[in-house]
């Protein structure tokens, strides 16, 4: 059952812990923001009005990260992750600007294909 606020004893230390806890509590569907600001279900690809969504829990993480945590900033889009083109449309620029403006301090991980 959805809650209006975080449970009093819920304070996950890492994003991995938060996702594990949420899945154990029955939260099993992931959403991302689609073109036009709609929410896209990453499992079935259906679109939903964000006004119909409700935030049940909020977690904030600061300091060192867990090596098990990951963030996909952009990708091919095949698995629901945003593409550089998605970010470009959302910010009113072109994908080249999105890709080239990420600073050198951010490590790159290339998965398959040419660099």
Structural description of this entry:
- With 115 residues, the protein is of the alpha+beta class.
- The chain folds into 2 domains: 1-65, no CATH class; 72-105, no CATH class.
- 21% of the residues lie in helices and 7% in strands.
- It has 3 helices and 3 strands; from the N terminus they run αβββαα.
- A 3-stranded antiparallel β-sheet has the order 1-2-3, with no helix packed on it.
- A hairpin with a 5-residue loop joins β1 (31-33) and β2.
- It is globular and about 45 Å long.
- The N and C termini lie far apart (45 Å).
- The model has no long low-confidence stretch (mean pLDDT 78).
As a whole number of angstroms, the C-alpha radius of gyration is 16 Å
Beta fraction: 5-15%
Helical residue percent? 10-25%
Spatial order of the strands in the main sheet? 1-2-3
Shape call: globular
Count of extended strands: 3
Discrete helix count: 3
> Major sheet: size, sense and barrel closure?
3 strands, antiparallel
Order of helices and strands: HEEEHH
């Amino acid at each position: 059952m959805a809650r209006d606020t975080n449970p009093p004893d819920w304070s996950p230390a890492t994003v991995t812990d938060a996702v594990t806890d949420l899945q154990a509590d029955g939260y099993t569907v992931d959403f991302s923001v689609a073109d036009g600001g709609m929410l896209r279900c990453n499992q079935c690809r259906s679109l939903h009005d964000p006004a119909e969504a409700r935030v049940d829990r909020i977690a904030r993480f600061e300091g060192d990260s867990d090596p098990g945590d990951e963030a996909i900033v952009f990708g091919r889009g095949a698995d629901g992750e945003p593409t550089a083109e998605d970010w470009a449309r959302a910010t009113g620029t072109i994908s080249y600007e999105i890709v080239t403006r990420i600073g050198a301090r951010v490590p790159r991980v290339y998965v398959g294909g040419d660099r």
